[in-house]
């Protein structure tokens, strides 16, 4: 049957030319979109050893001097620091707070801020790399708030590491592989390539994290940034609520209670925001949300466009080929045979344009016109960097999507043709 169908396609090559050109263009454009989503979903599937669920940024601010309730006597460094610790104690002892952390505003999980570090191994100075520095006060537990784990899923806490050394540093698993591939890290030194006197002593490692869900794991360095009177404005408070309490209820009760209790000295509660929302807001401000919406809209447009085009074309073809349909049915073809023939004809057209489409796509790859989210961030054998395998997989996915669209588009006119009575179909001859 396939040989017969290909002969029919060739005999009707003039009428098939335009639909073939459209399928060719749509195949290439849809492949570009499928490739984008393939990389996006692959990156999202990569594990990040922290959890933003049930976590909140507690925004505590200071009254401005012109405020009528401002207290000048509470503005010196000693009073400021004492009041800040009182604020932390009251938050920590809230009945629904499970853990609390104080971290640098540049280290907000899922936020737009970024504080970078560039290090090399003192043992082997050829091993160097850059990544995100996450600064926090080790008197609080950043790792418990965000449920950090080791690479194999074991929970970790700040108390698991020795922070008594002011040069203590904890690194992610990817940093271990980058700087110390033998796995021996305790007591090793990381130093700045530009100023070797800036160095830190490795106290342990934890699992890798991703700055954003759609990126790959990155090098991460955890360093102590202790609370002082002159850096309070640059720090933020993070809490995790107990899972026995819904997020909605926690937010409502926490704001109602803490709005009164955190009015200490010149401090007041300005707001509470979930880190999941911060992550979503950052995606939007960085344009990632718009990119996903645009690519989704384009994919739907092309699929609907090809369905309407194929449906209209085959509806017209069936009207002018009723004599052929009637003759086939008169010679013993069943309704199922008619449907199968018409559907296979559409799929064969798709097969004909697949190879030319892939040749065009090859040029796009060669010219570097395809985007790879996270490319250049520690490429350690990730699937999207294996271009040949990625090219085959994304073309296969594109073919399946278009095949489904074509089958859906052809089914209605094919079904209508199959239901014609042979005598009625032959009448059109």
Task: List the topology elements.
Elements: H1 2-11, H2 13-45, E1 55-62, H3 77-92, E2 97-104, E3 116-121, E4 128-136, H4 142-145, E5 168-172, H5 173-179, E6 189-191, E7 199-206, E8 220-224, E9 235-241, H6 247-261, E10 267-274, H7 275-285, H8 288-320, H9 322-330, H10 335-366, H11 387-418, H12 422-427
Parallel strand pairs: 4-8, 5-7
Antiparallel strand pairs: 1-9, 1-10, 2-9, 3-4, 3-6, 5-8, 6-7
Helix pairs in contact: 1-10, 2-8, 2-10, 2-11, 8-11, 10-11
Notes on the protein architecture:
The structure is a single chain. The protein has 429 residues and is α+β, with helices and mostly antiparallel strands. Strand 6 and strand 7 form a beta hairpin. The mean pLDDT is 86.
Number of helices: 12
| Termini separation | 24 Å
Quote the average pLDDT: 86
Please provide the count of β strands.
10
Q: What spatial order of strands do you see in the largest sheet?
A: 3-4-8-5-7-6
- Poorly predicted runs are none
Largest sheet: 6 strands, mixed, barrel
User: Which descriptor suits the 3D outline?
Assistant: elongated
Provide the succession of SSEs: HHEHEEEHEHEEEEHEHHHHHH
Helix proportion range: 40-55%
Radius of gyration from the alpha-carbon trace, in angstroms: 31 Å
**Helical/strand content category:** alpha+beta
Percent strand = 15-25%
């Amino acid at each position: 049957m396939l040989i017969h169908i290909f002969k029919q396609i060739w005999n009707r090559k003039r009428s098939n030319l335009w639909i073939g050109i459209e399928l060719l263009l749509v195949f290439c454009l849809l492949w570009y979109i499928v490739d984008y989503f393939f990389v996006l979903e692959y990156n999202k599937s990569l594990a990040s050893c922290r959890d933003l669920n049930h976590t909140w940024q507690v925004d505590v601010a200071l009254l401005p001097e012109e405020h009528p309730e401002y207290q000048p006597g509470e503005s010196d460094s000693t009073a400021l620091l004492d009041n800040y610790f009182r604020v932390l104690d009251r938050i920590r002892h809230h009945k629904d707070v499970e853990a609390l952390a104080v971290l640098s505003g540049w280290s907000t999980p899922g936020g737009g801020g970024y504080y970078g570090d560039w290090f090399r191994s003192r043992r082997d100075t050829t091993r160097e790399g850059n990544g995100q520095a996450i600064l926090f006060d080790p008197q609080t537990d950043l790792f418990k708030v965000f449920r950090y784990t080791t690479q194999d899923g074991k929970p970790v806490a700040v108390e698991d590491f020795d922070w008594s050394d002011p040069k203590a540093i904890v690194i992610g698993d990817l940093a271990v592989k980058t700087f110390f591939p033998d796995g021996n890290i305790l007591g090793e030194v990381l130093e700045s390539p530009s100023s070797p006197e800036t160095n830190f002593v490795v106290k342990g490692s934890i699992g890798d994290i991703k700055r954003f869900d759609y990126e790959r794991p990155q090098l991460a360095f955890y360093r102590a940034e202790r609370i002082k009177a002159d850096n309070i404005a640059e720090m933020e408070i993070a809490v995790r609520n107990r899972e026995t309490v819904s997020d909605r209820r926690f937010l409502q009760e926490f704001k109602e209670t803490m709005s009164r209790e955190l009015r200490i000295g010149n401090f007041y509660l300005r707001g509470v925001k979930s880190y999941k929302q911060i992550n979503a807001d950052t995606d939007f401000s960085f344009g990632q949300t718009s990119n996903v919406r645009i690519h989704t809209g384009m994919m739907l447009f092309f699929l609907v466009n090809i369905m309407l085009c194929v449906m209209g074309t085959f509806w017209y073809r069936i009207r002018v080929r009723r004599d052929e349909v009637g003759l086939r049915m008169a010679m013993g073809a069943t309704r199922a045979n008619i449907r199968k023939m018409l559907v296979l004809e559409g799929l064969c057209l798709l097969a004909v344009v697949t190879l030319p489409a892939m040749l065009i796509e090859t040029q796009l790859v060669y010219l570097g016109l395809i985007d790879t989210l996270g490319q250049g961030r520690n490429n350690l054998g990730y699937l999207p960097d294996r271009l040949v395998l990625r090219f085959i997989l994304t073309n296969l996915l594109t073919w399946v999507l278009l095949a489904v669209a074509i089958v859906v588009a052809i089914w209605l006119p094919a079904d209508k043709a199959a239901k014609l009575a042979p005598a009625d179909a032959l009448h059109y001859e």
